[in-house]
Amino acid sequence: MAWVVLFVLVGRHIRPLLKSELDMRCYDCLQEARSDTTGIGVCSRCGLATCENHARVRQVQVTRQVGMGAASGRIPARRVVCHTCDMAETAN
Ligand SMILES: [Zn+2]
Ligand SMILES: [Zn+2]
Q1: What is the Å distance from ligand 2's center to 16 Cα?
Q2: Cut 0.85: pTM above it
Q3: Is residue 25 part of a domain?
Q4: Of 86, 80, 88, 83, nearest to 34 (Cα)?
Q5: Residue 15 CA, ligand 1 centroid: distance in Å
Q6: 82 pLDDT more than 90
Q7: CA 70 – CA 65 distance, rounded (Å)
């Protein structure tokens, strides 16, 4: 069996994902005193675990340096944010 090392992007820093984070509980669910959900991902903004109900999966364009300019890839990348960070990002 191969070892897989996952990395998580927290703000502008990348750090290895700890094994314990893979079975972390959703923070928003803990706030609502629910414990029946499992985290499906880690918010790319606040770094807290989030579940299927509270996660917002966004498509993001990836830009690459090509010569003197930047080119955006044809295939969008993906990023997970939690419900709270999603509201903070989209609220005016
Ligand atoms: Zn949740
Ligand atoms: Zn968040």
Answers
A1: 18
A2: no
A3: yes
A4: 83
A5: 23
A6: yes
A7: 5
Its domain, for residue 51, covers 7-90
CA of 87 to the centre of ligand 2 (A): 9
Are the beta carbons of 82 and 56 closer than 8 angstroms?
A: yes
**Domain assignment of residue 1, yes or no:** no
Distances (CA, A) of 9 to 36, 41, 46, 75, 78: 26, 11, 10, 20, 12
Query: Is the pLDDT reported for residue 79 higher than 90?
Result: yes
Unique residue bearing structure tokens 């960070």: 85
Q: How far does residue 30's CA lie from ligand 2's centre (Å)? A: 14
Number of domains in the chain: 1
Q: What is the pLDDT of residues 16-69, one digit of tens each?
A: 766 655 567 899 998 888 877 888 899 999 999 999 999 999 998 888 888 888
Residue 59 within any structural domain of the chain: yes
Quickly count: other Cβ atoms within 10 Å of residue 68's Cβ: 5
Does 70 reside within a domain? Answer: yes
